[in-house]
Structure formats: structure tokens, C-alpha cells
Write a structure and sequence with these properties.
With about 375 residues, the protein is of the alpha/beta class. It folds into two domains: about 200 residues, Glycogen Phosphorylase B (Rossmann fold); about 140 residues, Rossmann fold (3-Layer(aba) Sandwich), CATH 3.40.50. The chain contains 15 helices and 13 strands. The strands form two sheets. Strands 3-2-1-4-5-6-7 form a seven-stranded parallel sheet, with helices on both faces. Strands 10-9-8-11-12-13 form a six-stranded parallel sheet, with helices on both faces. The two termini are about 20 Å apart. About 50% of the residues are buried.
Length: about 375
């Protein structure tokens, strides 16, 4: 079987799909990933055949710089991404490259992440089934409607009426978000829950003795604000804890500024290697970081910066698995509360059990391989 994955040129959108991609490859299936040209070399270095499709990350950032209104609220920022950036800028550029890649590779199945809107139209045009792969909390229904409305012109351009929710949920929706983080809204009938990645089979004790270890990480995009990351780590270090900070790809430790003796800075390491030793995760609220922390039963303190992080932070707070802080002013108090109150660790452990009970990628692959072809 040949499977084509497609996503925006953003690691936070793309990398969550690789767990499923690996499950297909374990069955002997051929997997190719289509994304912006600047991520292709990274994917190839990781052993994934890649096809350049759609705009680069730099082009995407330039569109945001020119067209995103200033001083948007978190909800307005989400509406801009899902109503303008993804459907009106990214999707038309992605579609032509995606169709050419489909014609060249002849895939049997298309898989796209939730922010990539061209794949359902490409699937309809080429008579192929498509699967939406989530990377976190499903967007509110009103945001989904904005995306559908924005995609109307592109579907019409190809002589088609845009289906409900722009066809995003027509065949299957692979959902990596555990029940405790879901919004209170109906999910699509095609929803297929799946673990967000490899998770511990049982709760992990916090490694080491002495001071608890606090992990500070701002992911692979928002880490670029080294001044903020440095300020966060210095604030965390005021408490009687050991602090491990990931400065992020391409950011030297020196960029974070002087750090106290109880702070250690590394550029990057897989979260799966760091979380077993961690007591609490202090982060920006990116979906991958939040899900990884909870998959290990680790509570969080979230300082959302943009994108979907405010939504994730609200769900962490609502679930009882952590607290949110608006900048560094309240960070020390929030972290002390999460460290001292066992209820947060207990709730995070309950969500870990939820995640561990979700079907594995291998089990989901068994179902996806049976999807019928889409109607042309």
C-alpha cells in the first residue's frame, strides 16, 4: 500500500503524524510525506521520503507579517489561522503540488494534519480516500465553519461544491486528544481515537532524589524568543528545584542570558528521554508538549504564547492537570502550587491512564487499510 502524508511546514503540525506513518511502514507500506520545501531535508534525514509541496515556512511567516491584524485576542488569532492563513494562503499553493505528487506516486490513501486543507479536495479530484490526523484539541465548531467558508472558492474553482466542514471529516478523523482535554462539543462520527505516540505502560516514578526536576521547554517554534525562555527559567529557579531547560533547535544556551546554578540548559532532547525524570513541565502549551507530558503523567504550568496554545492551556486548567500563568509574574506561585498539591499529579496520572487505553497506531492502521475509495 502507498500512503501519502501531507502537512504544513511546521514541526508541531507534521511530527505528530509520524507515529502513524511508522505503523504503516512497519507493515511494509510505502510512506511519503509532502510538506514545505524547508522541512523536506529534515524528514529525509529522519529516513522519510519527502516531496516538496506548498509554501515554505518563511513564505508562511511573511504572509502572517503582512496580513495578520495587530493585537488580536487568542480567539481572533485562531480565527485568522483557520479562516485566512490555512485555507486562503496555504491550501491553493499546496493543492497544485499535491495533485502533481499524487499523479507521480499513485498513492492508495491520503493522510493530512488538521491545519492542511488541500488534501480533501485533492482526494475528491483523484478519487482517493483521505484521513484527517489531529495534533491536539479539536477546534471549536465555529472555527471549523470559518475554514469551510474560506475553502468554498477553491472547491468551486474545480467545479465542486464544498462539503460540510470542507470535507475534513468525511472518511476518518484520527484523534490523538484524550477525552479529558476535549471541548464540550459533539465529535464527528468518523472519529478514531489513537494514542499520540509511544507511552509508558504504567505510571513512572519521578527519577532521582533530592530536589524535584522541573523541565522548561518552549518547543520547536516559540523557543526563538530566547529572552522569554531565559526569564522563565530564572523565575522557576527561585524555587528549591533543579531546572532543565531546552533552548530549542539553533538557539545557544548563551542566548538565554545568565542562569542560576540550579539551571542546566541543553539545546534539544526527545521529550520521551526527559519526562521520566521530570516532576512538572513548564511550557508554552504546544499540543505535542502537552500531550507528551500527560502521556507520562506529568502535570503542567502553561504560559501560552500564540497559535493553539491558549486553547490547550484552557483545557489543561479545566482538566485539573495543571495551571496557566499569564507571563512570568504569577509563574512562581503557580509552579509552587502544582509542586505542593498532589491533586495535579493525580489528575495527570488519570489522563495518562486514559491515553494508555487509546488504540495504538498499529490498531488504527488495520482500520484505515480497509477504507473504500472516495467518489470522484
Amino acid at each position: 500500500m502507498r500512503v501519502l502524508f501531507a502537512g504544513l511546514p511546521n514541526q508541531g503540525h507534521l511530527l505528530p503524524m509520524l507515529y502513524l506513518a511508522n505503523a504503516f511502514r512497519a507493515r511494509g507500506d510505502q510512506v511519503t510525506v509532502a510538506t514545505g520545501p524547508d522541512l523536506c531535508s529534515y524528514l529525509q534525514d529522519q529516513g522519510y521520503p519527502a516531496a516538496a509541496a506548498g509554501p515554505s515556512a518563511q513564505q508562511q511567516r511573511e504572509f502572517v507579517r503582512l496580513h495578520r491584524p495587530p493585537h488580536l485576542s487568542p480567539y481572533e488569532g485562531m480565527a485568522f489561522a483557520w479562516g485566512e492563513l490555512f485555507p486562503r494562503f496555504h491550501a491553493p499553493l499546496m493543492l497544485s503540488d499535491l495533485l502533481a505528487t499524487i499523479d507521480r506516486l499513485k498513492p492508495d490513501l491520503l493522510v493530512h494534519e488538521s491545519g492542511e486543507f488541500a488534501t480533501p479536495l485533492a482526494g475528491r479530484l483523484r478519487g482517493l480516500p483521505w484521513v484527517q490526523h489531529s495534533y491536539g484539541v479539536m477546534r471549536p465548531v465555529e472555527i471549523q465553519k470559518l475554514a469551510s467558508q474560506a475553502m468554498h472558492a477553491l472547491w468551486q474553482e474545480h467545479g465542486l461544491s464544498v462539503p460540510t466542514r470542507a470535507g475534513m471529516f468525511d472518511h476518518a478523523y484520527v484523534d490523538v486528544c484524550p477525552p479529558s482535554l476535549q471541548l464540550d462539543q459533539p465529535g464527528p462520527p468518523t472519529r478514531m481515537p489513537m494514542r499520540p505516540g509511544d507511552v509508558p505502560a504504567q505510571g513512572l516514578p519521578m527519577g532521582g532524589s533530592g530536589q524535584p526536576l522541573v523541565l522548561v521547554t518552549f518547543g520547536t517554534v516559540f523557543h526563538r524568543d530566547a529572552r522569554l525562555v531565559g526569564e522563565v527559567s530564572r523565575t522557576v529557579a527561585r524555587l528549591p528545584v533543579a531546572v532543565l531547560v531546552t533552548s530549542g533547535p539553533g538557539v545557544a544556551a548563551e542566548a538565554l542570558g545568565p542562569q542560576p546554578q540550579n539551571v542546566r540548559v541543553i539545546e534539544y532532547a526527545p521529550l520521551a528521554e526527559l519526562l521520566p525524570r521530570t516532576a512538572v513541565v513548564v511550557c508554552h502549551g504546544g499540543s505535542g508538549t502537552v500531550l507528551a507530558a500527560l502521556a507520562h503523567g506529568r502535570p503542567l504550568v502553561v504560559l501560552p504564547q500564540g497559535a493553539d496554545q491558549f486553547l490547550n492551556a484552557a483545557q489543561v486548567l479545566a482538566s485539573g492537570s495543571g495551571l496557566t500563568s499569564d507571563g512570568t509574574d504569577g509563574l512562581e506561585q503557580c509552579l509552587a502550587e502544582v509542586l505542593d498539591n498532589p491533586a495535579y499529579r493525580s489528575r495527570a496520572e488519570q489522563i495518562r491512564v486514559e491515553i494508555a487505553a487509546m488504540p495504538t497506531a498499529a490498531e488504527v492502521v488495520d482500520v484505515l487499510r480497509t477504507l473504500p475509495s472516495a467518489d470522484r
